[in-house]
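Question: what's this shape?

___
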Amino acid sequence: MRSAKSNWLAQRITAIILIPLTFWFLYFIMEIISYNHNQVLYFFKSSTNGFLFMLMLALMIYHGKLGLQIIIEDYVSNNLLQKRIIYLINFLSLVLFFVSLISILTIKYLY
C-alpha cells in the first residue's frame, strides 16, 4: 500500500485537474442537450473531446478509488477484511475504467 502522504497528494492533484474538466463537461453538456444522436456521436468522435472526456472519467474513477480506500482504511479495523475490500475496490475501478475506455473507443471507431 502507498503511504498516506502520497494518497493525500494524489487526491489533491486529481481534484485540481478535475475542476476545469468538470466545468468543460458542464459547459458542453448544456450544448449537447439540444443535439440529436448523430451530433452527440460526432461530438465524442472529436479527438479533443474524446480525450478530455476519457481523461475526466479516468481521473474521477481514480479519485473515487483513493477516497474509498481511505474510508476503508480509517473505519474497517479487521486487516483481512480491509485488504479484501480494497482489493475489490481496485478491481472494480479497473473494470469501470476499461468499460469506459471501450465505450469511448467504440464511439470513435465503430460509428
In short: The chain has a mean pLDDT of 94. The two ends are 41 Å apart (CA to CA). The first helix runs from residue 4 to 32.
